[in-house]
Write a structure and sequence with these properties.
This protein is mainly alpha-helical and about 190 residues long. Helix content is about 55%, strand content about 5%. A hairpin with a 6-residue loop joins strand 2 and strand 3. The longest helix is centred in the middle third of the chain and has 15 residues. It is globular.
Length: about 190
Amino acid sequence: MAEVHAVKEPETIQLVSHLLKIRHSQQMADVWDLGLNLALRISDLLSITFRDIDGDRLVLRESKTGKLATIHLNPKAQKIIQRIRDEHPHHLYLFQSYRNQQSRHRTPRPITRRAVGKAFELVGEELKIALGTHSMRKTRGYHLYQATNDIARVMQMLRHRSAGVTLRYIGVTQDEIDRDFRELVL
């Protein structure tokens, strides 16, 4: 599996969403847009059910760590969720597979990580960037770090235990750290 990166330019973030919508589906664009706003691992993002959403909060147990994540939903996330809920009032999952609707007797399932990964990879190839299912989480972390320079906040948001891991994860390179030391003179 190739390493994927955070999307660092705001214009490119919007372009990824647009290309996912026109090349693949609104659902893939929604995965991207919501994933950017929730910073969840892809497995947790795709497993969200409407029961996990309580007003302006998302509450779920992370599959990798077993930790309980309580996330305040910002207005953009709330708007996306409400639109999906209005369009698909009988869905169990926020990102429910449409293929599953072909048989009334099948248990509902979310779209697969593989389908999302393929759509993201194709858009990434078109834009010549390493894009994958972790790119949403990495992008959110990267931009929070750029806005605050507070690695502890980014670690909390991503629920990481190590600053070094978090810095590598969001793509902050040694050159950027060196530049910060040069430019910040006290």
